[in-house]
Amino acid sequence: MVPVLRLEGVYHRYGDGPKVLVDVNLDVWAGRPIALMGPSGSGKTTLLQVAGLLTRPSLGTVIVEGDPVPRKGSRRDELRRGRFSWVFQTVNVLGHRTVADNVALPLLARGASRLATRQPVGEALAAVGLANRANERAVNLSGGELQRVCIARAIAAQPRCILADEPTGQLDRSTSTQVLDALWAVLDSHTALVVATHDPIVAARCDDIATISDGRITVSGA
Amino acid sequence: MKNWRIRDLFRESVGNDAGSRGRTLILGGSALLVVGALFLSDLLVTGGILDFQRRYVESGGNLYIASSKSGLDAARCAALVSLPGVKGSAAVSPGPRARVLSEPGTLYWTGIVTMGAIRLLTTASTIQAVDLQGRVLVGADAAQELGVVPGSWLGIEGTKPKQVGAVVDSEDRDPALNRWIAAVAAPIGLARECWVEFDAGVKTGRQETMFAMFTGPDVVVQPVKRLDEFSRDPVGELAGRPQTIAWLYAGLLLALLGWLSSWFRRSDVGLYRAVGTGSPALLVIAAGEFVIPVVVGALGGALWALAWWMAEHGNPTSDQLYVASRTAASIVLLAVTCTPLSWIVLGRESIAAQLKDR
User: Fold this and answer.
1) Interface residue A135 vs chain B (CB under 8 A)
2) What is the separation, in whole angstroms, between the first and last Cα of chain B?
3) Interchain proximity B278–A78, CB inside 8 Å
4) How far is C-alpha A33 from the chain's CA centre?
5) Which of A27, B184, B214, B277 could form a disulfide with A3 if both were Cys (CB 3.0 to 4.6 A apart)?
6) Closest CA of chain A from B11, distance in Å
């Protein structure tokens, strides 16, 4: 059995700046969520981006399901990237499209037909309490609602790994509990979750806690 | 793992166009204005050139006269009309000025011409080629002064009365010929001049052709219109019109708008990439998003220009449509080729950086 995601000796720096990640070694297993904690600017978002193949590490290796990602980008990266689902801190949605269109995006990118996306999109929106907003343009939703759209998009895709960056940062406690329940509901023996958070309640739901400080990571059981 | 279905990529483009109405309207409106303006200006310029060419032909710009004091073979001259590129030919022998019995005291130029002369004297197509042999052609001004019409009899001093075969208005070709009275004769013997009108497309070798048909040391070939009478160069004007460069700027302007609209959507590009969309799929989405409003706008602009032209000037010629359509198509092709490439460039940026760019 191999971890869904493995980081081996990962270093990263932006340009000539200081090292943001220093010798990071991390295994992410299916069905065993990890909370990534640390102060602001400690490198949590960078670690997620490196793990999710959005940024190439300056040094070290990212291994996706036993398949080392080469240093140089290739067409296979797009397919590897398609195995991940993202909940971005910056709430990235296509504002001019409907909520349903946004949630269907990763499914379409994997070759699903529009018809085939209806059921998982509907279920995901119901799970985050937005079933009745499916046909509204995303730009009309509030920040918290958009965050829930992002979570619905992440869970509808049935990915191998969900990478969530502060998923409940803009939500009230009640809604936060609802979307966390939705996130945890899709976790099974095939799906992994890495969640960067400051919220101890979110961390308490995880099996492992990875604490990051000055780019160095320490993993411990919750 | 599969990637996007082609049909869904196009639907994604259409969805993005429909969702971003402002962007779509700006792109489509720009294409409408730019393409419409250049389409119309091409119609105007080519219309002016074609109008000049028409007037040039009508006024006898392609008419040449070979003359020889010792005479030219009239039959050979009349036969020139069968050569490719020759529109008409006629043997002409100018005669002396003569007095007409019904108008004592007034002198008219006379001459002997072969049948083909009618076609060379006038561009009007109303005169039918009836049997004119033995009759006379009377210039329109002379006919008015003398009060004659086809079928009238005309007494010319020193000759038997002759019937008027046709009244010819040669105002466009040569106003002086409108006071001419010419007898129509069969192409036999020698004539002083041979008039030949070439097709508009025949550019070179006119004089050589005529020289080759008539041998003799004193054969002179000259155009009816002096070359310096027409200072315009239609072919040069067509090749040097501003639109031959303007299409490039117009296409690049539209492409620039497309690039700008892509640049302001970097986070959208990042999102597509983050969910596993590859460069070819991005290219299809970008092309679809850009092509639809630009092509629709360009078509609208061209149709608007065409409608304006038709309302003001009537139907354009096929040459005008060809020139204007080529310019419009060049603009659109350049723009739709350049713009989607911006997504390929954006597709090489860091996805993380693009996602932050909100």
Assistant:
1) no
2) 30
3) yes
4) 11
5) A27
6) 10
* C-beta atoms of A92 and B281 within 8 A: no
Q: Mean pLDDT throughout B184-198?
A: 89
Q: Residues with Cβ < 8 Å from B345, sequence gap 6 or more? A: none
Is B235 a residue whose pLDDT tops 90?
no
Using pLDDT thresholds of 50, 70 and 90, give the confidence band for residue A172: confident
**Minimum mean pLDDT among A18-22, B298-302, B337-341: which range?**
B337-341
Q: Which two tokens stand for residue B204?
A: 């070179």
Residue A49, pLDDT above cutoff 60: yes
Interchain proximity A106–B276, CB inside 8 Å: yes
Angle made by CA atoms B349, B281, A134, in degrees to the nearest 5: 95
Q: Which of the residue ranges A105-109, A122-126, B124-128 would you say has the lowest mean pLDDT?
A: B124-128
Decide: B192 and B67 in contact? Cβ < 8 Å.
yes
Q: Can you tell me the distance from the alpha carbon of B138 to that of B149, in angstroms, rounded to the nearest whole number?
A: 9
Using pLDDT thresholds of 50, 70 and 90, give the confidence band for residue B173: confident
CB B356 within 8 A of CB A90: yes
- Give tens-digit pLDDT for B63-119: 888 898 888 889 989 888 888 888 889 999 988 888 888 887 888 989 999 888 888
**Which pLDDT does position A191 carry in this prediction?**
87
Check whether B204 has a pLDDT greater than 80: no
Q: What's the pLDDT at A164?
A: 93
Question: Which residues 161-220 in chain A show a CB within 8 A of chain B?
Answer: none
Record: contact B4-A109, CB cut-off 8 A: yes
Length of chain B (residues)? 358
The angle, 0 to 180 degrees and rounded to 10, between the axes of the packed helices B266-274 and A99-109 is: 50
Residues of A in contact with B8 (CB under 8 A): 108, 113-114
Of the two residues B342 and A161, the one the predictor is more confident about is A161
Interface with chain B: mutation pick from A55, A78, A136, highest number of B CBs within 10 Å: A78
Q: If contacts are CB pairs under 8 Å, which of residues 32-61 in chain A contact chain B?
A: 49, 52, 54-55
**Contact: A97, B273; criterion CB under 8 Å:** no
Interchain contact A158–B (C-beta under 8 A): no
**Separation of alpha carbons A210 and A195, rounded Å:** 10
Q: Look up residue B106 and give its DSSP letter.
A: E
